[in-house]
Amino acid sequence: MTGFGVVHVAIVDDHDLFREGLAAILGARSGLRVVAHGARPADVLATTEAVAIDVLLLDVELDGPPARTTIASLRRTRPDIAVIVLTMHRDAVLRRTLLAAGATDFLTKTTPSSELVERIIRAASDRPPTSSTAETQSDTGTAALLSDRELEVLRLITRARTNAEIAAELGIAIGTVKRHVYNVFRKLEVSSRVAAISAATRLGLLD
Question: How far apart are CA 178 and CA 166, in angstroms?
Answer without folding.
Answer: 10
